[in-house]
Specification:
The complex is a heterodimer of chains A (112) and B (112). With 112 residues, chain A is mainly β. In chain A, 0% of the residues lie in helices and 51% in strands. In chain A, the strands form two sheets. In chain A, strands 2, 4, 5, 6, 9, 10 and 11 form a seven-stranded mixed β-sheet that branches. A four-stranded antiparallel β-sheet of chain A has the order 1-3-8-7, with no helix packed on it. The model of chain A has no long low-confidence stretch (mean pLDDT 94). With 112 residues, chain B is mainly β. In chain B, the strands form two sheets. In chain B, strands 2, 4, 5, 9, 10 and 11 form a six-stranded mixed β-sheet that branches. Chain B has a five-stranded antiparallel β-sheet with strand order 1-3-8-7-6, with no helix packed on it. In chain B, a hairpin with a 5-residue loop joins strand 9 and strand 10. The chains are: A mainly beta (112), B mainly beta (112). At the A-B interface, strand 5, strand 9 and strand 10 of A face strand 4, strand 5, strand 9 and strand 10 of B.
């Protein structure tokens, strides 16, 4: 049983560009959450998707947007990249309102 | 707004030592608290989850406690091993919310 997978593993962009990160949830999971983890910090909640709708959002600007597909996979889009967007982006999946979240390995984004 | 703090930021101990990692939170309306392990550059692995109605949870050499009245949780690791070296993060989920609020973690190094 595959766990949570994320692609790409690493990504390098320049300021002002746009980026799309992808997440496939653990088999059977229908809820996907995205987190941003800056170096040396704990992850910060970006948003959560359930049934293709954004269910809750953290304190991130509108440059951060997402989407969930009918197969429950999800994308995180970041527009107009800033140097401060450099971080590890983590995806977590769960089943409904279950407390247990399974995290993927993350995508390391570097903005130059 | 929930805030989670972890002290110390880093800890180095000799193999075999028992140790305690500390986590404090500001809002007692916590729904549950989780402890995660993160290896360098990797995603998060859930270790223990304590519901607000529980006082502690145990898994192998790990024991986590939760005291809502004092806003504290501890993770006890017995007979530490070099393989325990990692960053340990605690995260709280507030009642009525779906996001996890993370601390900045404690980086543990167990010396052989």
């Amino acid at each position: 049983d595959a766990g949570v997978t994320q692609s790409p593993t690493h990504l390098i962009k320049t300021r002002g560009q746009q980026v799309t990160l992808r997440c496939s949830p653990k088999s059977g999971h229908d809820t996907v959450s995205w987190y941003q983890q800056a170096l040396g910090q704990g992850p910060q909640f970006i948003f959560q998707y359930y049934e293709e709708e954004e269910r809750q959002r953290g304190n991130f600007p509108d440059r951060f947007s997402g989407h969930q597909f009918p197969n429950y996979s999800s994308e995180l889009n970041v527009n107009a990249l800033l140097l401060g967007d450099s971080a590890l982006y983590l995806c977590a999946s769960s089943l409904g309102s279950s407390d247990t979240q399974y995290f993927g390995p993350g995508t390391r984004l570097t903005v130059l | 707004k929930q805030e989670v703090t972890q002290i110390p930021a880093a800890l180095s101990v000799p193999e075999g030592e028992n140790l305690v990692l500390n986590c404090s939170f500001t809002d007692s309306a916590i729904y549950n608290l989780q402890w995660f392990r993160q290896d360098p550059g990797k995603g998060l692995t859930s270790l223990l989850l304590i519901q607000s109605s529980q006082r502690e949870q145990t898994s192998g050499r790990l024991n986590a406690s939760l005291d809502k009245s004092s806003g504290r949780s501890t993770l006890y690791i017995a007979a530490s091993q070099p393989g325990d070296s990692a960053t340990y993060l605690c995260a709280g989920r507030d009642t009525g919310r779906r996001a996890l609020t993370f601390g900045s973690g404690t980086r543990l190094q167990v010396q052989p």
